[in-house]
Design brief:
The complex is a heterodimer of chains A (212) and B (10). Chain A contains 8 helices and 2 strands. With 212 residues, chain A is mainly alpha-helical. A two-stranded antiparallel ribbon of chain A has the order 1-2. Chain B has 10 residues and is largely without helices or strands. The chains are: A mainly alpha (212), B little secondary structure (10). Chains A and B meet through helix 1 and helix 3 of A and loops of B. Chain A: Keywords: Cytoplasmic vesicle, Endoplasmic reticulum, ER-Golgi transport, Membrane, Protein transport, Receptor, Transmembrane, Transmembrane helix, Transport. Chain A: It is a multi-pass membrane protein. Chain A: GO terms for molecular function: ER retention sequence binding.
Chain lengths: 212, 10
């Protein structure tokens, strides 16, 4: 555990809580992609199956349980409790275009051809692109609520901090996981455009809106 | 036996 890893995890946790609170307090999931949230629920479910097979630490186990629990709670709020506010017409990204290639890639490129390991790999690849339906939705509507941009910023920051964590681990522990690193790089790059808008607009007190 | 892989990160 190093400072980048810990702040990365906390940033990830902050993103998840911000989104849950936003939906709960406003009693609305307008502007939120339910598809991205379903993908994140799949990501956590397939990655944390090792909860059943191995114990790493109390920190590790409790964070995994919190992430999984919050992911399903978010999906429940969007598709059940506040379904009437869900903007399905703008959430039109075709997720099969992500799931199918990612599944194929996980079977082809993995650390070991074992069921749990393939599912872990699948979750890593899927996480790197799971935000695309959300970014697609924002590009379609041309705007995002400020609180939604805080959510996205924390989520992108988490992956950027993990990149520093991997540099740290490579130098001090000789550890590197090529699958996680490449997928993490892809994931971080996807946020770059958004980071730019966040810094130039949202942090200056303006709402995030895209030119028509 | 296949090598045991540990994923200690979240």
């Amino acid at each position: 555990m190093n400072v980048f890893r810990l702040t990365g995890d906390l940033s990830h946790l902050a993103a998840i809580i911000i989104l849950l609170l936003k939906i709960w307090k406003s009693r609305s999931c307008a502007g939120i992609s339910g598809k991205s949230q379903i993908l994140f629920a799949i990501v956590f479910t397939t990655r944390y199956l090792d909860l059943l097979t191995s114990f790493i630490s109390l920190y590790n186990t409790s964070m995994k349980l919190i992430y999984v629990g919050c992911a399903y709670a978010t999906v429940y709020l969007i598709y059940v409790k506040f379904r009437a506010t869900y903007d399905g017409n703008h959430d039109s990204f075709r997720v099969e275009f992500l799931i199918v290639p990612v599944g194929g890639l996980a079977v082809l490129i993995n650390h070991s051809f074992a069921p749990l390991e393939i599912l872990w790999t699948f979750s890593i690849y899927l996480e790197s692109v799971a935000i695309l339906p959300q970014l697609f939705m924002i590009s379609k509507t041309g705007e995002a609520e400020t609180i939604t941009t805080h959510y996205l910023f924390c989520l992108g920051l988490y992956r950027a901090l993990y990149l520093f964590n991997w540099v740290w681990r490579f130098y001090f522990e000789g550890f590197f996981d090529m699958i996680a690193i490449v997928a993490g790089l892809v994931q971080t790059v996807l946020y770059c455009d958004f980071f730019y808008l966040y810094v130039t607009k949202v942090l200056k007190g303006k709402k995030l809106s895209l030119p028509a | 036996h296949a090598l045991e892989i540990h994923h200690d990160e979240l």
